[in-house]
Amino acid sequence: MSYNITLIPGDGIGPEVMGAAKAVIDASGVEINWDIVDAGEGVIEEYGTPLPEHVIESIKKNKVAIKGPVTTPVGKGFRSVNVGLRQALDLYANVRPVKTYKGVPSRYEKVDLIIVRENTEDLYAGIEHSIGDIAAESIKIITKKASDRIVEFAFDIAEKQGRKKVTAVHKANIMKLSDGLFLRCAREIAAAHRDIEFSDMIVDAMSMRLVQSPEKYDVLVMPNLYGDILSDMAAGLVGGLGVVPGANIGEDTAVFEAVHGSAPDIAGQNIANPTAAILTGVMMLRHLGEFEAAERIDNALARVLSEGKAVTSDLGGNTKTTEFAEEIIKNL
Ligand code: NAI
Asked: What is the DSSP letter of 272?
């Protein structure tokens, strides 16, 4: 059995960490025909867009893609490739498992969260306009359809993974209509899943609680922007952006990508931590049903991290990105 999978290397540290992830996945023995396609600023001159049609077509055909980070200009320039992809393919659920790994320095020991972030609407959709040069307006849209399906997705994950608790995160005390709708949907869906404990929390309080006692939380479900912010914060609870994977899931298509960005400050130096990219590959293999290979990679990675001898500079070592991947391959 072999799989056709789209691979977007991305830019900045993208090609480095994705190169490491691809090498490890290939070494696991799972046979993959990679369709490697580029997106981002580098392709604008050739295709007139950072997200060419053939990239979307490749993912639609293969149904599974793995993607490195793509730089988005701040405050001006082209629209985010990531937001474009999520909307074009209706990848409505962004799933980010945040877990402590032995050997990865962090302030906490037993964090095991899954952040489920709505991925298509909210302020993060970037619908905005200027009112002359004196003001600007961003439009926050929350729909019942998107709220229902993301909360349903969160309960589904909780049930499939034998988890105990779902917490809906919102700001319905202030945004009574938009976040209020999200919360109402969450409560209705929770009522149909009595086997899983449900609670809700305002996003500011949630931020404090996560910093105080992250081990008390399990599955968190929230609208897009809160998910963007809280998942980076949660990465900080377990050793940083270098170790947190992610997936964008739609009805029949999935694009796997780590939480971190293109890290221009360390790009091109072969020092980025590929753990997040490799764990993203592990999520992809589980999605394909390749559980044995996924487990082997996960265990090899955990072993290398816990030994602490060959880790990248963000974790206090001086191992290069490529050497780290080789170390995991040796441990497979
Ligand atoms: P970033 O995640 O790229 O970097 C934040 C900090 O974390 C930096 O100090 C960086 O060196 C460090 N870091 C990130 N990943 C690391 C890794 N694997 N190993 C070691 N250190 C790592 O966030 P930033 O700087 O806000 O964004 C840079 C660019 O990436 C922006 O253009 C942004 O739009 C884009 N971005 C793209 C994403 C995607 O394509 N999925 C996601 C997030 C940001």
From this structure: S
**Is the domain defined by 107-237 classed in CATH 3.30.450.40?**
no
Amino acid letter for position 332:
L
DSSP 128-172: EEEETTTEEEE-----HHHHHHHHHHHHHHHHHTT--EEEEEE-T
pLDDT of residue 270: 98
115 sits in the region (left: phi over 0; alpha: psi -120 to 50; else beta) called: beta
With a 6 A CB cut-off, is 242 part of the ligand 1 pocket?
yes
Catalytic annotation present for 110: no
Does an H or E element contain 254, and which? strand 254-257
Phi-psi map region of 236: left, alpha, beta (phi>0 left; psi -120 to 50 alpha): alpha
Centre of ligand 1 to C-alpha 68, Å, is: 11
Which 3 state secondary structure label does DSSP give 201? strand
User: How do 64-67 and 254-257 pair as beta strands?
Assistant: parallel
Known catalytic membership, residue 112: no
pLDDT tens per residue across span 259-276 = 999 999 999 999 999 999
* pTM given for the model: 0.94
Distance, CA of 10 to CA of 67 (rounded, Å): 7
Answer whether 92's CB lies under 8 Å from 283's CB. no
Q: Which residue from 17, 8, 88 is spatially nearest to 312, judged by alpha carbons?
A: 17
CATH architecture of 1-99+239-332: 3-Layer(aba) Sandwich (3.40)
